[in-house]
Write a structure and sequence with these properties.
326 residues, alpha/beta, TIM Barrel, 6-stranded parallel sheet, 3-stranded parallel sheet, globular, binds zinc ion
């Protein structure tokens, strides 16, 4: 481990609040018969491994798979039930967090602060009432679309049609602003992205997206999108899924290249982490699961980011947006 101004990367990592803005662990637990409180050789993330990896704040997405298109609301409820079952079972290790003061309290107890989010606005079944009830059920973030089209907007796979936010999508953005929920533009079509940034009164996040100019995948953001996200004080989470990082020979260095590109383009204040653990089908070789996360801190320091900048990337930036929005 390298040593900068008397602090090692390892020390810095474990002294800093580390936030991961996206994982698909809730559905992976169900699929793989795992429990969040037990260390497993399967998958990428559980509470013992989060602790080993020094992650203190974890977003848990309720991913609404397209196969549940006709009963998306019931599917969301099933996944919320998994989240709260795990929170109850593992009260000594983690607690649900609903705002910044919850996060501070939970971190002071040396537990993991867990945020419930929804990935796929089809879960709303086209109703603002459902959005308001989701907020009451503890949901604090919504990825407006997955790859396809829903009642709110078009996802990235519909880009060819040029579709953006629907009038219902506009109403959802405004209601999320009012309720205090994180609007997530990862997966949304390019037109949808610009529509959201025009409509929102508060910063938005791209929980797990990388740079299109370094890896030409429709899930990644173009340079002008990254600049605008930053101008609106939003944050994008660096995604560890190799398919969104590059073609061949993706390594930790490739991830750091994306961080450096965003910093050059739009500044450090819009960079965060959004691993996609337990959702990604493959991993960066150096990051087979969350336990190796201190390597990211070491890599960022080696890449030339200052201690203060690394703290922002590890969690400070997302925490700033949450302070503003939730
Ligand atoms: Zn996703």
């Amino acid at each position: 481990m390298i040593n900068i101004k008397g602090i090692s990367a390892q020390e810095l990592h474990f002294l800093t609040p580390v936030l991961d803005a996206h994982c698909d662990t809730l559905t992976a637990l169900e699929r793989e018969g795992r429990r969040l409180g037990r260390m497993s050789p399967r998958g990428h993330l559980d509470l013992p491994r989060l602790t080993q990896g020094g992650v203190n704040i974890q977003f848990f997405a309720a991913f609404i798979s397209p196969k549940y298109r006709d009963n998306s609301l019931a599917r969301a409820m099933e996944i919320f039930d998994i989240f709260y079952r795990e929170m109850t079972e593992n009260f000594s290790l983690a607690e649900p967090a609903y705002n910044s003061s919850d996060i501070n309290r939970i971190l002071s107890l040396k537990k993991v602060a867990a945020l419930l989010t929804v990935e796929g606005g089809e879960a709303l079944a086209g109703r603002l009432e459902v959005l308001r009830m989701f907020h009451r059920l503890g949901v604090r973030g919504l990825t407006l679309t997955w790859n396809g089209r829903n009642e709110l907007a078009d996802g990235v796979s519909e880009a060819g049609t040029g579709g953006g936010l629907s009038s219902f999508g506009v109403a959802v953005v405004r209601e999320m602003n009012r309720l205090g929920m994180l609007i997530d533009v990862s997966h949304i079509s390019e037109k949808g992205f610009w529509d959201v940034l025009r409509e929102t009164a508060k910063p938005v996040i791209a929980s797990h997206s990388n740079c299109r100019s370094l890896c030409d995948h429709p899930r990644n953001l173009k340079d002008d999108q990254i600049k605008e996200l930053a101008a609106c004080e939003g944050v994008m989470g660096l995604c560890f899924y190799p398919v969104f990082l590059g073609n061949d020979g993706v390594s930790l260095e490739t991830l750091l290249d994306h961080a450096a590109h965003i910093a050059y383009l739009a500044g450090v204040d819009c960079i965060g982490l959004g691993s996609d653990f337990d959702g990604a089908e493959s991993c960066i070789p150096e990051l087979p699961d969350v336990t190796r996360l201190p390597l990211v801190t070491e890599g960022l320091l080696k890449k030339g980011f200052s201690v203060g900048e690394v703290k922002k990337i590890l969690g400070g930036n997302f925490l700033r947006v949450m302070e503003q929005v939730l």
